Amino acid sequence: MKTPTIEIKGLVKHFPIKMGFFKTLRAKIVPEVHAVDGVSFRVDKGEILGLVGESGCGKTTTGKVLVGLIPPTQGEVFFEGTKLASFSEKELRKLRRKIQIVFQDPYESLDPRMSVFDIVAEPVRIQKVAKNETEVGEMVRNALEEFDLVPPEEYMYRFPHELSGGQRQRVSIARAFILNPDFLVADEPVSMLDASIRSEVLKLLLSMQKKLDTAFLYITHDIALARHMCNRIAVMYLGKIVETGNTDAVILKPLHPYTEALIAAVPVPDPTARRIRVTIKGEVPSAINPPPGCRFNTRCPHAMEICRKKEPPLEEVSNRMVACFLHTKKAKK
Ligand code: SF4
Predict the structure, then answer these.
(1) Which atom from ligand 1 is nearest to the alpha carbon of 308?
(2) CA of 323 to the centre of ligand 1 (A)
(3) Which of 77, 119, 152, 243 is buried most, with the most CB atoms less than 10 Å from its CB?
(4) Residues 6 or more apart from 18 whose CB is under 8 A from it?
């Protein structure tokens, strides 16, 4: 098996809840948000893995840990087979050029005081990859052209507030790709854009990913979009992966009740087409106090006694991994 570009094993990220000074002193245990609880996956060179789930399920936190923006509470991240924890400060600084992230909100992710030129040039300057400012200028011009911000001279001296949402997101993506990253995390990169420009931005993102053969983690709540974009998908619920496998296999024949419900919620263009409706009742439980057993048991239409007591392991079933007693029990027969 080839070495994945990025791999995480048993990733856990908990955030302590901020309380007042006296409350913290009195509290025996400071409550924590269990944002990510034992997640493992790999992304190979040239592959697009979709991380799918409702908001608050831990997708963004996973992405932030992967690009080194926040440290994990537990677990290990490997880049091309080497543990990130074993990298020296200098090596980590170098590595940052190979790992990039595009955020959801192009209005918040760009510094309003910087010109487009300086925003896109920043990683080049920090990493000192250009010989001089003339070369920086050339790289910025090329990056803007790649993402259809043409002619570049028309955009590079503008500030973020002088751009539309679509243009801002193109600037963020140009900045992320300027150093030809080996691994890119895109966190809902088009969800805040008008429907009319979403497909253009996605097309540019996909063609660049293909050109550079980048390993790509695509974070989205939209399972239909994940089908269009991704080779594999991993479905996340309340900090855990519940089903993962080849995109078509998972979407055409979902095994986990939560995946089934996500797919059932996607509108069907043909009103005469029949689809079994699987609805999920209730709200996502609190990540401060996740339910014991299977985390989906409070909303699952198939929940059994065992689901409230034991946590289903993520096991291989029909060419994918599933964490559900409906299938794990069958698999053992
Ligand atoms: Fe539903 Fe039980 Fe499967 Fe969880 S383990 S998804 S509660 S059937």
Answers:
(1) 7
(2) 8
(3) 243
(4) none
